Amino acid sequence: MATLDDLKVAQYSIAFGILLDGARESTYQSFIIPQLSRLLEAVQRPNVQISVLEIGPGPQSVLGQLPLQLRQGIGRYTAFEPNRVYASMLEKWLLTTSTTEVPFPSLGDSPRIHVKPFTNKPEENEQGEDKFDIILFCHSMYGMKPRSEFITQALGMLNEKVDSGMVIVFHRDTSLAVDGLVCRHTASFPSGIVSIPDEDKPLDHFACLIAGGFTQDDENTQLGWRQICRTLCMRDKAHPGHLLFRDPGIMMAFTRDATALPELTAQVPLVVGRQVKNRQARRHRTAFVVRPTEPCQVQKCVYWALKHRTTLAVIGGSHGGHCLQPNVVSVDMAAFNSVEIVRKEKTGLGEDLVVAGAGCKTEDIIKKAMTVGLTVPLGSCPSVGAGLWLQGGINHLARLRGLTCDVVVGAVMVSVKSGRFLLLGQVPSQCQPDGAVRPDNEADLLWALRGAGTNFGIVISVVFRASAAMNYSIWQWNTLFFHTPDARQRLADFGPALANELPRNSSADVFLYYDADRLCIAVSLSRCSDAAQGIQPVTAPPLAATAFLGPEQCSKSVDVVGLYDTEMYISTLHGGHSGGKTSSFKRCIFLREIGELDVPDLLLTAVEHRPSPLCYLHLLHAGGAAAQVAVHATAFGCRNWTYACVITGVWPRDQDGTATARAAVDWVYHVANKLLPFSTGVYGADLGPDPRDESLAVHAFGPNRLRLACLKRSQDPLNVLAYTCPLLSQAPKHRLIIITTGKHGAGKDYCSELWAGTIMKQTPEGLQARVISISDATKQEYAAATGADLARLRHDRAYKEEHRLALTRFFQDQLLLQPRLREDHFLRAVYEASADVDVLIITGMRDEDPVARFSHLVPHTRLIEVRVTASRETRQARRQLLDEDAGDGDDDAESSAWMPTLRFQHEGTGDEAVQRFAERVLVRFVHEDLRRLQGMVRVVPNFPRVGMQFRHVLDIVQQPGGLALCTALLRTHFTGDWADIDAIACCEAGGFLFAPTLAAEVGKPVAVIRHAGKLPPTTLSIVKSTSHISSSPVKDTKEARIGADDSVLSNCRSVVVVDDVLASGNTLCDVLRLLGKAGIAPECINVLVVAEFPCHRGREKLRQHGFGRVTISSLLIYTGA
């Protein structure tokens, strides 16, 4: 065997360059750059430069490929690069003065390049007191062992003053093992590819790099290496002349909290060597598993995760491939395995209930329920856990009783937002833990739990509605096909000839597979009957079955436990897969029919091109009761299907992790994506953080996806449960959403288009703006239902007028069936706008007070309403209507039940006034000064309680120039005339800091509102509510009051209220009640707040308490607390 010599610097540089070029398009552009961008966005703050230390960057830093805005945020750059050639090239690249773009244009000092390796010994790194916000290892940890020591060394170099500082590692997924450290974020890229030119010289360099050395003048070795590369590679017509090699990648981000695991294991038992059923999950050997034994320990897990801002995975039945993640804590729910039957005599609800702990398996529940003659429609595998029940639950009773999630009537859950026990729906008193509460959005959470229930909290127990136990008669057929056309015809006829003829107590599953290279179509038909009659002798199968399939080959009668052993994939296919000698990977696509369009050919082609002889397709028959549940009744919104096609890749267990296993997984995804255009949805229970699942997850919840995504962001704001079915990859990054309202003919669409164009021209950074009509969704559905011309409905004013009344009736009919249709349409408009849109303008909305109604759905974005008004005569002329056809009265904004953010009077015909309004008014909502102000608000984690990210708004006045900037912005964001204002009112304590300087600027007196007893007589006072923050830690039994000097308020008719924060609206509501007591009308009050938290729905509370006509403006918008 030839001896390998170490690669010389020049050889390594050439080989590394070939490898980098080959991975750039796939790994870098599709994985590394997007992940780095997301992580740096979380670290960077407006007007604050970050410091970066990069280990082994090579000749150019990967950070140079980031968007300009992120590169501008890097103020200090340091690197360790041991390769002298690379170090010289890196320095030249960083200090370039050519016409090419400077990599980091905001560097305050010259970059520092250490031409030496980074070590795990502090004294050898010569960094002194230097600290960094980001430390990056991008494919530079090869040769560093043990890796945990190097990462720990890097953690000690993070800036202690920045909570968001991170050590970020990119590495090959198959070879990164970091023991003992908990990561904050992790992501994988299993489909990475390296493309190498199929030429001898590049292959020689590539092979030397992989081998770790080169041979001196050994031509035979070189020939052998080339042959190995060409044998093991993949080829693709899209990359002619290149050899493709798999390059799976992983990203891990660690913070200073990476060493916090002992804090958790001191409170919750750590489990060593926990074996899970999913073989892919077992590969994550650096996962940590804790096993709580009582509900309060689950709370401790959540509190720990919130405190350290890390993620958790959950182990139930452990069938899911995402129950273990590298360097992530998994919460094993095995101890919560009790099953309790609550008979209807005790529930008082007229129905029996089964309460099952989240650690129960399907078989546990079924066996306990059978003892009292009951059952729950659960899945077909006895060892499946709670993940199945909460995400659908396809079962043999689905046609008769519905899916498992359809019979979920209650649950106990630990909130991953607050750590509190939540009671949802029907929960018997004996099953309620101490301290449990019913949340305000209980109905929403219970709805989400029924179909997407692993996403919103850690479930302790689930309450099912039970029904009478069933026994089953089973008949099975297995047919060999020698000719594909015969098999195609069998599939095409299956529905009309058999499945569609079966009553609801029967179902017929189909299996497609190959046995000894012969195509087989197997059918298993089951019929259920009341178990009270006992197990009856099996009878003849239904006539339709024998007419279509001939005599059965196997039949038996079983109870529900025995039913498990009749599953053909366990007992029949390839001799049965129940021996524990195979591994599998599955994804499930919903099909309306298996005989329509190209579906039969796709199914047969899929099994024909299986990568392993053991792969098969399983078509589960449903419909019936499962299909009759309204799509919006539960989170499981995919209802219009008859067959669930389970695409199952199977391989011998001793080939786990090999090319055979990877090919089977690739085959599953390939078939799923081929069937997707013909499907009616995707089963979400299988889906997880694998990026290949994202395109499938888009179809997992039907029309409920956007509502679920919104609920996910509000109930899991820190994304603690990050490894569940992905509801939505990222929230839109719109900085401003403008809702343009007004009566027909006011010119809403015309103004909106001009405003969009003006905003794009007038903003220095060239913001992107787009106009979208919220009525498009209704127009599409109306056109499909009535045959109307969709294009003319959108663009032909006269045609639209003809259909206006019919369209309105159509929408109202839809609203009766879908009460949340308005919210769904709003979310659809927001999320379907282009990702690069900064300002979104929505027209066609006729909802009352849309900002109060919808702002909590987009708590990350400023939402304003601009009402366009015009006289009745002008609107008639624009609509070309006669006086008697006008349809609505004068556009009297003063009679409205709520105040819009802004009004624009549109009487003229030219563009000038419309554009001037955008330049002078709208552009200020995206002004760079607002970002400067936002940069002055410090974020304090875990204050005033664990899990809360406190925005220290009052810190603005402690920053140089902060108060002056805030005062200037408050003044310009007032939409009225300061000459009409009598006083500026403020309530202690936050308002006291901002109101006086504003009052001095505009020359108005301050009306001071304080706690009663702190002002001398004569005062007006009212009973005070508790604010969002002050209600958190302490309860005061005394009745608190607030008041103001009566002599000041009695002289006021118009007032501006200034406060620091609008959250729940309690404090502001008290102030408005006090002003009302002083005789000041709501329409004469303007409110200016520094920061608003829309998720708490403060505006809606004010509207409900009669203050809808108060004009409210805010400078900053924050999601969360």
From TrEMBL:
InterPro entries: FAD-bd_PCMH, FAD-bd_PCMH-like_sf, FAD-bd_PCMH_sub2, FAD-linked_Oxidoreductase, Oxid_FAD_bind_N, P-loop_NTPase, Pmev_kin_anim, PRTase-like. One of its GO terms (cellular component) is cytoplasm. The keyword Magnesium does not apply. The keyword Flavoprotein applies. Keywords: FAD, Flavoprotein, Oxidoreductase, Transferase. SUPFAM superfamilies: FAD-binding/transporter-associated domain-like, PRTase-like. One of its GO terms (biological process) is cholesterol biosynthetic process. Residues 282-469 form the FAD-binding PCMH-type domain. GO terms for molecular function: FAD binding; oxidoreductase activity; phosphomevalonate kinase activity. Belongs to the oxygen-dependent FAD-linked oxidoreductase family. This is Phosphoribosyl transferase. It comes from Cordyceps militaris (strain CM01) (Caterpillar fungus). The lineage of its organism: Eukaryota, Fungi, Dikarya, Ascomycota, Pezizomycotina.
